[in-house]
Design a protein that fits this description.
heterodimer; A: about 200 residues; mainly alpha; elongated; B: mainly alpha; about 60% helix; about 0% strand
Chain lengths: ~200, ~200
């Protein structure tokens, strides 16, 4: 008997044994009988955890754009080009995200936090104040990103006091109070989010 | 008897070369890939393709699932040990159940390259059958009384907060780094989703 015949014979025998010894195989594509739809046990490939349906191609494109504009800003910053870096990060605020995803607010709050720091870096404190306050006005949920934006808000207030200390001490004092409020808000939110995460993870 | 100079089969049955082992394992890997749903390579030796076709028939009947690497290697090694046992049995005149007879051994045909590949054939088919058996073991029996329901659940991705953690003041401007982290996680989930759905629609 030739090698190929042995192999085919072995395969056929094993196939026959498998068919005789096992339950009839379930065709995952076949429609269940009309009176048995509730009792159908799904085949193994359908019993695994499904991936979050919100992770869509549209979301990936939006995240990819945000990531690339941040990297673009990184390159400009290495050249000391703050204006172009700011322009790149500002573009992120205009990226459209799919509805009902938390990634949009997280991404844009983080972009605003970075913008605030960039504006502080070049002394444009009014622009820094504006971009941070616009973000804080849009908050809909507590997150580490919101806490971070409050932190940057406190830093903007702190930077503003430096110029006012000599010219308007009262105003400087008021801004220091606001800075403390912003830092406190950041701490409170971060603790709250941290607690929620620990609770959800069962710790 | 002449043999193909390109044939990589060793003449000494008791001395399985590393090359032979690698070839046997690569063949087993091919079958495992096939079980995983991948297409067979376009260029294959005729005998290897026959083995793959046999495995395909079994897989097509029983579903698809791969074996663990350790399990697959154990089966391949066992097949080679069977070859050694045949040689020892011949010396002691003991009958060992193998897919070739003592007459085959005596007529010298077993020394041909094709017959020397037989342990690989046994190994490959054994891997395919063991995979089929593992599918059956993992597949729950149909419910009695017809009250069971589907158990599929949706795996929710971790939030960005969980991914990046609390943001220190010194890191408040490191949005680029955090964006990379979030993107990497979502991309992995997106690819897993693509695989689950069988590709882009």
């Amino acid at each position: 008997m030739k090698h190929s015949q042995i192999v085919r014979l072995a395969g056929a025998l094993l196939l026959a044994v498998g068919l005789l010894g096992c339950d009839p195989p379930i065709d995952p594509l076949a429609e269940p009988p009309a009176d048995d739809k509730k009792s159908l046990v799904k085949p193994p490939h359908e019993q695994v955890d499904h991936v979050d349906p919100k992770i869509s191609q549209a979301l990936m494109i939006s995240l990819s754009l945000a990531k690339n504009y941040h990297h673009r800003a990184d390159v400009f910053l290495k050249d000391g080009n703050f204006e172009q870096a700011i322009a790149s990060v500002q573009t992120i605020l205009r990226i459209k995200f799919p509805n009902d995803t938390t990634e949009e607010q997280d991404t844009k709050f983080d972009a605003r936090a970075r913008l605030g720091k960039l504006y502080i870096g070049i002394g444009k404190l009014d622009e820094a104040r504006k971009v941070v306050d616009e973000g804080l006005a849009q908050q809909t949920r507590r997150s580490f990103f919101l806490a971070n934006l409050h932190t940057v808000s406190g830093e903007v207030y702190t930077a503003q006091t430096l110029t006012l200390d000599k010219t308007d001490p009262a105003q400087a004092k008021e801004l220091r109070r606001k800075a403390l409020q912003a830092f406190d808000a950041s701490i409170d939110i971060a603790l709250e989010v941290q607690g929620t995460i620990l609770k959800e993870s069962g710790q | 008897m002449t043999r193909d100079p390109n044939d990589d089969v060793n003449d000494d049955v008791n001395d399985v070369t590393p090359k032979e082992k690698v070839r046997a394992k690569s063949l087993a890997q091919l079958i495992d890939n096939l079980i995983d749903g991948n297409a067979a390579p376009p260029a294959l030796e005729a005998h290897d393709r026959e083995l793959l076709e046999t495995a395909t028939a079994i897989v097509a009947t029983l579903g698809s699932r791969s074996l663990a690497t350790e399990q697959r290697e154990r089966i391949v090694d066992t097949a080679f040990e069977l070859g050694h046992a045949q040689e020892q049995a011949e010396a002691k005149d003991i009958i060992v159940a193998l897919p070739y007879s003592k007459a085959d051994l005596e007529d010298g045909d077993l020394a041909s390259p094709e017959r020397r590949r037989l342990p690989w054939a046994v190994a490959a088919v054994a891997v395919a059958v063991a995979a089929a058996v593992s599918i059956r073991a993992a597949w729950p029996p149909p419910p009695v009384g017809g009250t069971a329901t589907a158990s599929a659940t949706i795996k929710k991705q971790p939030s960005a907060d969980v991914l990046v953690g609390r943001i220190a003041r010194s890191d408040s401007a490191r949005a680029s780094f955090r964006m990379d982290t979030i993107y990497a996680d979502r991309l992995a989930a997106y690819r897993a989703g693509l695989l689950h759905r069988g590709g882009l629609k």
